[in-house]
Amino acid sequence: MWRVGLALAVGLIGWTVTAANFPEDLPTRTIAWFVLADPLLALVSLVLLTVGRRRRPVAVPALVLLLAAFSAASAGAAAWAVGSVATRRSWRELALVAPMALASGLCAEYLYPATVDSYPWPLIALIGTLYLGIVVAVGMLVGSERARRAGLEERAETAEREQQARVEAAHAAERTRIAREMHDVLAHRMTLVA
Which of 112, 105, 119 minimizes the C-alpha distance to 76? Predict the structure, then answer.
């Protein structure tokens, strides 16, 4: 659940920074969208990620990135979506999702007008690419750590099974030795009796 909290925090920061840069003469329709629909899209994005990202590991993040193009508050959910795909360490999936994330960020940047002069889109694309690179690198690192941990667990289970097999083989060998010894002792006594 820490992912949901982090995505909410990042989304809230993005939402408040966007609100702080609004001009005073913003149309009522834009304000209504920003206050009502923007947070709703962020919540839908978080619910989609929480419920569906394991069943549809690429489709759900792609849908979340589409929603994030129209919602400043979905920035955290979009980062979570890209990080989730990156943990799978599949370059094919990242090649599909990464351009969508970059385009989504550019769309969200120009969705709401700002009071300050906006930066040129190449600079915004560069900053978005750096941010995307960090998210992908962290996701790949998490995926690598998960794979390493799974490998260690698999090796531990294999070693435990092998140890159990050695113990069972030692028990069987000991039973066989005792049975031979008993057979030899019994045969010797039978010979003495005879």
Answer: 105
